[in-house]
Design goal:
Low-confidence stretches of chain A: 252-258
Structural class of chain A: mainly alpha
Strand order of the largest sheet of chain B: 2-1-3
Strand content of chain B: 5-15%
Strand order of the largest sheet of chain A: 2-1-3
Oligomer: heterodimer
Shape of chain B: rod-shaped
Number of strands of chain A: 4
Radius of gyration of chain B: 37 Å
Structural class of chain B: mainly alpha
Strand content of chain A: 5-15%
Order of helices and strands of chain A: HHEEHHHEHE
Helix content of chain A: 55-70%
Distance between the termini of chain A: 65 Å
Largest sheet of chain B: 3 strands, antiparallel
Radius of gyration of chain A: 36 Å
Largest interface: A-B, 72 and 85 residues
Number of helices of chain A: 6
Number of helices of chain B: 15
Shape of chain A: elongated
Order of helices and strands of chain B: HEEHHHHEEEHEEHHHHHHHHHEEEEE
Mean pLDDT of chain A: 77
Chain lengths: ~270, ~450
């Protein structure tokens, strides 16, 4: 084999290797572009949520307020049953707690104070005042719901960003949560009467001569359930908003590896 | 703020709200005191409402403490809600100073209120013990377990949560507030005069917008910039192929005597450079088509012999002048200097210390004009490319004292702003955040 032939063979060999490299590079470029496109799609999916979260919260609140308003006005607030000297007696009381409705002295004695001490922790006046105050709170909730509904309606025209919308949403939900908490704590007064009844039963038996006293607050239980749901929902809304903003910021996915100059200037 | 820290803060604030609500319910739910009655062995238990409405002055005095406890718990709930909203605002990166202030103030307020809760709990226990007739009511008439202890335990848990919350949140936010205020001051001071004679400053909002840009958007920008750059280089290469011949022909015209006289005029350091250049006279032009952007430095091409000059430009031992990485690198390539420079220098290629192929005089001018247009279009320039461009810059005098100065940098992870020392306008290659320990390069 001549020297020239060897040289030509080497050249061919190296040229083949170079071609292979070129093809590899082109394939790599194509795959890189495809990967970039895929990543872009994924990031777009992550950053742009399909809908703003809990879009119909306002309507939900209005519905809850209306239902609770109906429950307060038309459902029995207080049911009592006891064994007296004349046998077992029971009485149901509605929102407007009228003294004329009380047919039995024992009930009056249980609810009235003995040396300024109420055995159940609340008086007849409390019974009269609490339904009205709670109904006001529910009206307030309904008003907030209506405001929120209006905001959602205007959002179609104003086209608020997700950030601003979620901030407004979280502020609204904080207010709703605090109202729900107030309702919950007011209603707790009735629930605590069960404990007081358990503790003070011997005194009631000795002073009033009644046994097996059973007390039920149907409206109170329903409202406590609703208030607990309102508190939980509002806090979960706040959490969801927080997560949505996190997603939008892309903190989980992409992190900027570069440090940015604070006093960078345009030359 | 790092993702882990943010998650922790969110969880802690949720726990604070939960414990505050539970303790509020417990206050209204459980009985506080049991008072002896006229009947021996029979006690009346008082809850929160009963204590409030009691006719006994001694018992009613307890209601002040209980009211204070109730109020402080409500404040804990309200402030924790505010801090939660503040955290959402913080994540939105809108009005950074105000949001930081909200978070810090609410965090401190929550801590203070939780301390007040604990204090009022202890005060009520002590005042109940001081009653003549009354005593602390026990849980389900079991004497060792007292109802008040539940409140106490809850308040202690609440305080632990608030302490951990404030310890996490307040240092971060205070640092960021201080750095933001300092950064604003420096930005106001550093107003740079542009070519048109108009003073331009970059506000925080603009910077935040840049920061919040998406990755694909940035990549596309950088890619387009690179493509343009490569196209321009290819054009230059084509023109270079034509001009080299003419240059060689010009060189041939010079007689031996003239060349000797020129060599005598050249200083010693430049003589070395000329000698080194002569070692590789048949150096091929750099092929950008077959190379990837990241592999520009790669010299393992089989068709060419491996030459150290391709990597380092010139040997380190012989050059006394500073290398390109020691030179100051500004935010963007300095186009003006490049246009003025080659006219004065006889061999501009010798001064280029990068790995690139030497480029003749007329081609550089064309390239610079193109670069200028590119710079106007694209604002974001990667740091690697800045170094490439800096290679064509004019050399500084040899014995120059390095000027030290500081520059404020913001961490992309925790948004902490801190000062970084720069020497001759060049930032150190790797920066470490003092807060979160994150490493990265300056942009």
């Amino acid at each position: 084999m001549n020297y020239n032939e060897e040289d030509s063979l080497d050249k061919e060999f190296f040229l083949n290797i170079k071609r292979d490299r070129v093809t590899k590079d082109t394939i790599l470029d194509e795959t890189y572009k495809k990967a970039l496109q895929k990543r872009e799609k994924k990031t777009k999916e992550k950053t742009t949520p399909k809908n703003k979260p809990f879009y119909k919260t306002g309507i939900l609140l209005i519905i809850i307020a209306m239902i609770c308003f109906g429950i307060i006005n038309y459902m029995p607030w207080f049911y009592i049953r006891y064994d007296g000297e004349d046998g077992t007696k029971e009485q149901i009381f509605y929102k407007d707690f009228k003294m004329e409705d009380i047919n039995y002295e024992e009930i009056q004695k249980i609810l009235s104070s003995n040396n300024d001490t109420h055995y159940l922790g609340f008086s007849i006046n409390d019974f009269k005042n609490i339904p009205t105050t709670i109904s006001y709170y529910f009206i307030g909730l309904g008003a907030i719901g209506f405001l929120f509904f209006l905001l959602q309606m205007f959002d179609k025209k104003l086209k608020l960003s997700l950030d601003s919308f979620s901030i407004i949403h979280s502020i609204f939900s904080a207010v709703i949560m605090s109202i729900g908490l107030v309702i919950l704590l007011i209603m707790m007064r009735f629930i605590s009467s069960y404990i007081l009844l358990y503790y003070n039963m011997p005194l009631i038996e000795t002073y009033i001569n009644v046994t097996n006293v059973i007390v039920v607050f149907p409206v109170v239980f329903i409202i406590i359930f609703v208030a607990a749901i309102i508190v939980k929902l509002s806090f979960s809304i706040m959490k969801i908003n927080f997560r949505e903003i996190e997603k939008k910021a892309g903190i989980k996915g992409y992190e900027n590896p570069f440090f940015i100059h604070k006093n960078r200037s345009k030359n | 703020m790092r993702n882990v820290i943010a998650k922790r803060i969110g969880k802690l604030s949720a726990w604070i709200i939960f414990f505050a609500i539970i303790s509020l319910i417990l206050i209204h739910f459980t009985s506080w005191i049991s008072v002896e009655t006229s009947i021996p062995g029979e006690n009346v238990n008082y809850n929160f409402e009963m204590i409030k409405n009691s006719g006994n002055v001694e018992i009613q005095s307890l209601s002040e403490n209980l009211d204070f406890l109730d109020l402080s718990l409500w404040l804990v709930v309200v402030f924790s809600l505010i801090s939660y909203i503040g955290l959402t605002l913080y994540r939105c990166q809108k009005c950074p100073i105000i949001t930081n202030l909200i978070v810090t103030i609410s965090g401190i307020a929550v801590l203070v209120c939780s301390i007040l809760v604990l204090y009022s709990n202890i005060a009520t226990i002590s005042s109940i013990n001081g009653l003549s007739n009354g005593a602390i009511s026990s849980f389900l008439n079991l004497s060792p377990i007292k109802n008040v202890y539940f409140h106490l335990i809850m308040s202690i848990i609440l305080m632990i949560c608030t302490i951990s919350y404030t310890l996490v949140v307040v240092p971060i936010t205070t640092r960021s507030i201080i750095s933001l205020i300092k950064g604003e001051k420096t930005v106001k001071k550093q107003s740079v005069k542009s070519d048109d004679g108009v003073f331009e400053t970059k506000s925080f909002k603009e910077e935040e917008k840049l920061e919040s840009d998406d990755l694909p958007y940035r990549r596309t920008k950088v890619e387009s910039w690179l493509k343009k750059e490569i196209d321009s280089l290819e054009k230059n290469r084509k023109i270079h192929g034509e001009t080299v011949e003419t240059k060689n022909s010009d060189e041939k015209v010079l007689s031996e005597e003239e060349s000797r006289s020129i060599e005598e005029e050249i200083p010693e350091t430049k003589k070395h450079e000329t000698e080194i250049k002569d070692i590789f006279p048949d150096e091929e032009s750099f092929d950008f088509e077959d190379k990837k952007y990241d592999d520009i430095v790669d010299v393992k091409d089989l068709d060419r012999p491996v030459k150290p000059k391709m990597l380092f430009g010139k040997p380190l031992e012989k050059s006394n002048e500073p290398m390109f990485w020691d030179k100051p690198s500004e935010g963007k390539p300095q186009t003006e200097e490049k246009i003025q420079k080659p006219k004065d220098t006889p061999h501009p290629v010798e001064k280029s210390e990068s790995f690139e192929k030497p480029v003749p005089k007329p081609i550089i001018e064309e390239k610079k004009v193109e670069e200028k247009t590119v710079v106007k279009e694209e604002e974001i320039v990667p740091p690697v490319i800045e170094k490439e461009d800096a290679s064509i810059e004019e050399k500084k005098p040899e014995k120059e004292i390095p000027v030290k100065s500081k520059i404020n940098v913001r961490c992309p992870g925790c948004k902490n702003i801190f000062a970084v020392e720069i020497i001759d306008g060049k930032i150190i290659s790797k920066i470490k955040c003092p807060h979160c320990g994150r490493e990265g390069a300056a942009k």
